[in-house]
Amino acid sequence: MNKILTNITKGIINRVKGKKHAGDFKKIAWLTEKIVKHQNDTTIKQISMSRFSMFYKRPYELLHTYKEIYVKEIYRFRTGHQQPLIIDCGANIGMSVVYFKHLYPNATIIAFEPDESNFSLLSKNVELNKLQNIKLHQSAVWVSNGTITFEANESEASRIVNKKDTEKKENTREVQAERLADLLATYKRVDFLKIDIEGAEWDVVRDCAPYLNVVENMFLEYHGKTHDTHRLRDLLQILHDNCFSVYVQNAADNLQHPFINRTTSTPFDVQLNLYCYKIK
Questions:
Q1: pLDDT tens per residue across span 73-109
Q2: I need a surface site. Which of 16, 243, 246, 276 has the fewest CB within 10 A?
Q3: What is the extent of the structural domain holding 122?
């Protein structure tokens, strides 16, 4: 009985104290988070974090992304290279770029972001944090060079769309596109490849398949509808063929009763984080 009471007491104390964060970045202070949550999402604002500063518009995305990248450190990886090459596809406002530079200060980073508003903030944040060896591309990664139709939401949800859908959207436009496969073909080693491109990953990864052998680590965010399971199968097969081990993590739980409500009204039903790495 005493042992049970002791365990219950320890559990209560741990809940009150909370788990101590062992990473390099502190959690956002409770008061700061409350203040940020009530900000508007239209004007540019600046915030000072524990080790960097950031310009941003959307407070919710700032808080969510900070927790994922800096508290949970979903992009943390190891490499023996002191000057690794990192390619960031879907860099948004630069939270990931700043994190990668913290992880490996001497890294060379090639970052792609097609949304004009996001790219402007990305550029400002690179300058604000005085980052070096950063190559920014205001382009969408795609299967060909040229232009492509893009839905610019000034958010993390900005994405490539079919031309047939443009009449339904007010914020679609043509943006520059660059073939990622062509870039990968120029390197013998890429230490980390991040692909978070809101649904275009199926096309892009299939096109890059012959060159993924040069990639050591890859973070791939998969977006799909439940009836497009073949796309996930294709991606996993490509990863297997290129000798990647894969850890799958649910990134968004969108369906409460999947056997009954089998799809959503949103562009994607399924969002998965795929952590892909080579075992030597």
A1: 999 999 999 899 999 999 999 999 999 999 999 999 9
A2: 16
A3: 81-278
Checking if the pLDDT of 8 tops 70, the result is no
- Rounded-to-integer distance, Cα 179 and Cα 172, Å: 20
What sign does the CA torsion over 38, 197, 195, 199 have?
positive
What residue type is 109 in one-letter code? I
Q: For residue 269, give the H/E element and its range.
A: none
List the CATH number of the domain containing 126.
Answer: 3.40.50.150
Q: Rounded to an integer, what distance in angstroms lies between the CA atom of residue 207 and that of residue 182?
A: 10
106 within domain boundaries: yes
Tell me the one-letter amino acid at 98: V
Looking only at the bridges linking them, the beta strands covering 172-179 and 146-151 are antiparallel
> Residue 128 domain-assigned?
yes
Q: Look up the pTM and report it.
A: 0.89
> How many whole angstroms separate alpha carbon 196 and alpha carbon 121?
18
* Four-residue CA torsion sign, 113, 154, 67, 40: positive
User: What share of the chain in percent tops pLDDT 70?
Assistant: 86
For the sheet with 140-142, list strands across it: 140-142, 172-179, 146-151, 159-160
Is residue 221 within 8 Å of residue 274, measured between CB atoms? yes
Q: What is the pLDDT of residue 229?
A: 93
Classify residue 39: in a domain, yes or no: no
pLDDT band at 153, cuts 50/70/90? confident
Cα angle value 124/27/93 (rounded, 5°): 20
Q: How much is the pLDDT for 21?
A: 47
Amino acid present at 12: I
The contacts of residue 140 (CB under 8 Å, 6+ apart) are: 112, 114, 148, 150, 160, 175, 176, 177, 178, 197, 200
